[in-house]
């Protein structure tokens, strides 16, 4: 069963005293501790960092491009956890425009899926190798407008798990919803996060 629990690790400034918040989502086989190791490389002064842990170290069991029904129960549970975290952040008097998101691989896919289903003016989002979820993109799942929220999607070209075409299609959906999307594909880059991607994220997203 893939019913996720609200099991989170935090870092940075406590939420009650923070000027903003970053929600970080690990990849398949990873942990919240793994993804939190990146925070020292981001420009995130006075920010609260929140990283939930997926059950079985996986947010959903199959490929992000499997038929949506195959991943539906796990995906719904994961999206609910993120929604609860965002509500907690807002309840701590941090507005949506100061909430940021970052994820890698499966966590990057989940990042994009969440913000597209809950579009509003966020601080920004970084998807390190990811795309919108489903065998085909169903634009009917996505609502709202980003009001020029900056979004960065990086990927390898090619990547063994995330086709570049899906990345580009996902970017197009977000652009229609008024996100300012940057896509950067790195020729021959393995399935990982590299320093140039972190530098780009700092320049485009973590600037405030």
Write the layout of secondary structure elements.
Elements: E1 8-12, E2 20-25, H1 32-36, E3 47-52, H2 68-91, E4 99-104, H3 106-117, E5 124-128, E6 150-157, H4 164-176, E7 180-187, H5 195-204
Parallel strand pairs: 2-3, 2-4, 4-5, 5-6, 6-7
Antiparallel strand pairs: 1-3
Keywords summarizing the entry:
single chain; alpha/beta; Rossmann fold; 7 strands
Structure, explained:
- With 208 residues, the protein is of the alpha/beta class.
- It has one domain (8-204): Alpha/Beta hydrolase fold, catalytic domain (Rossmann fold, 3-Layer(aba) Sandwich), CATH 3.40.50.
- The chain has 5 helices and 7 strands; from the N terminus they run ββαβαβαββαβα.
- It has helices at 32-36, 68-91, 106-117, 164-176, 195-204; strands spanning 8-12, 20-25, 47-52, 99-104, 124-128, 150-157, 180-187.
- Strands 1-3-2-4-5-6-7 form a 7-stranded mixed sheet, with helices on both faces.
- Strand 4 (99-104), helix 3 and strand 5 (124-128) form a beta-alpha-beta unit.
- It is globular and about 40 Å long.
- The chain starts with 7 loop residues before the first strand and ends with a helix.
Give a nutshell description of this structure.
The chain has helices spanning 32-36, 68-91, 106-117, 164-176, 195-204; strands at residues 8-12, 20-25, 47-52, 99-104, 124-128, 150-157, 180-187.
Broad structural category = alpha/beta
Order of helices and strands: EEHEHEHEEHEH
Integer-rounded radius of gyration: 15 Å
How many distinct domains?
Answer: 1
- The name of the CATH superfamily reads Alpha/Beta hydrolase fold, catalytic domain
CATH topology heading: Rossmann fold
CATH class: Alpha Beta
Number of helices: 5
Overall geometry: globular
Question: Got a strand count?
Answer: 7
| Uncertain runs | none
Q: Approximately what portion of the residues adopt beta-strand conformation? A: 15-25%
Counting copies of identical and different chains, the oligomeric state is: single chain
Through-space gap between termini = 40 Å
Could you estimate the helical fraction of the residues in percent?
Answer: 25-40%
Largest sheet: 7 strands, mixed
Mean pLDDT: 96
**Strands ordered across the widest β-sheet:** 1-3-2-4-5-6-7
CATH architecture: 3-Layer(aba) Sandwich
